[in-house]
Amino acid sequence: MAEIDITQLKTPLDNFYHWEKAQPDKLFLFQPIDDQWHTFTYAKFGQEVRKMAAAIDAKGFPKGSHIALMSKNCCHWFMCDLAIMMSGHVSVPIYPNVSGDTVKYVLEHSEAKLLFIGKLDEKDWGVMKKGIPDGFDCIDFGHYSLPDCPHPKWDEVGGLHAPITENPSRDLDEIMTIIYTSGTTGVPKGVVQNFLGSAYAADFFRKSFSITPEDRFFSYLPLSHIAERMLTEIVVLSAGASVHYVQSLDTFKENMAECKPTQFLAVPRIWTKFMNGVQAKFSSSKLNLLLSIPIVNNIIRKKIREALGLSHVRNCFTGAAPIAPSLLTWFDRIGVIIYEIYGMTENNAYSHANVPGERKIGTVGKTLPGVETKISEQGEICIKGVSNMVEYYKEPGKTAEAIKDGFLLTGDKGEIDSEGYVRITGRVKDMFKTAKGKYVAPNPIELKFAKNEYIEQICVVGPGIPRPIALIELSEVGSKTDRGVVSESLLESLARVNPELEHHEQLQKIVVVKDKWTPDNGLLTPTMKIKRGSIDEKYQTMYDDWYEENGEVAWEE
To answer: What architecture does CATH give domain 432-555?
Structure first.
């Protein structure tokens, strides 16, 4: 992996100026609204950005002021972010489905001067608007049918101002954004990032994956999250590529089929859903048979990729949570190569990656250029690099806890193999102590169950009981299958996994829960990672009864 010349790096803003001039008529953004696609060329996008930057300038905020942005993914999210950069300020994204208390906290803690309100689900808006202080300066994107939003609309505000004609620049060491972590536990922390970190990461990913203006990206994971923002905004602007947005979850498959992405990012749960969807139509045995037949196997692989919307994809990525090696191997068999990437909000999603020619399943890849990795005595992965955060905003104590001698403490336990690939073995804080005083790391155990097609999600728990138990949410296939068949399959998985574990790690029981785990009910983060504290809070009073119940598989009634 070649080192990156910092003197040649460009901010997202400078990259945009280049493409605005070089390919003004190229279609840049594709936005579905009410089942109709609305498009923006680089030139048309630029005019919207320049008008809104002028409108922000007219408010007279001191340079470097904080401006909040609360919306699901849409073309105006990009426009807003670029307008904030162009007018010399700092963006503060807010996840589009948090509580009113979180909205209030972020606005107050960040000292935001202005809030852009965009595409939101009606039920989420009903909750979130309660956190906006009376009289707070707001601008509504419009266009997305947000009910009961009394604030001035984007087109009205932008229409009052002539577009900025010059190309204001930002220095690499200036602050670009403050990203408040979604938080699996505790109060969100404001991660302060400068332009250098994002520019460095974007340059690496663009070059390593040969991303060009001809590439198409499909944006649906929250842009408030660093991984989606890095890939489908910062890298896209670096490469001069195009982006299609999803209209809603209901239209996901249709929108993706129309986009035919050439670059595609998904978190492990999405990849699992894709696999389960295929398994709902082809049993494992039938699929294995078809893939073993010459000529037929190529036809089947092509049909599956087309059905998944991945017929034109060149690179697929995964991150944000651990992924089972067996899942990656399954996709390899149908010709979908997924590159696992490792990073976090605190380092611009840039520290390790599998890349073309250097991919090793079961690892998160090698240490990337500009990054130094060490493993602490406690087994924690520690990262030093140009993409590391500046600080946690207004939290010097927490900053000092997170960065020691220039190294970011990731909270992940891991090891480096003889070839330089990093393997994550668990989360430092996810470990729990059983009633027998033994510590258990749940992540590696959970990944061992990935082959079972009846399991959608799994969470190994055990505080207060002698040995751990596994809570599972059934997949779509599992929900439609006879309970006896599912129980037998779970028993087989348990019999396979337990002998691979230390005695104190071996599962006493598998419990099938009734409820779905979603961001809406607080059991998943917006990027679909399990919130273990919330799982314990919901189910812990039942752990003892489940533990003592006869049999190795129990069903929540």
So the answer is: 2-Layer Sandwich (3.30)
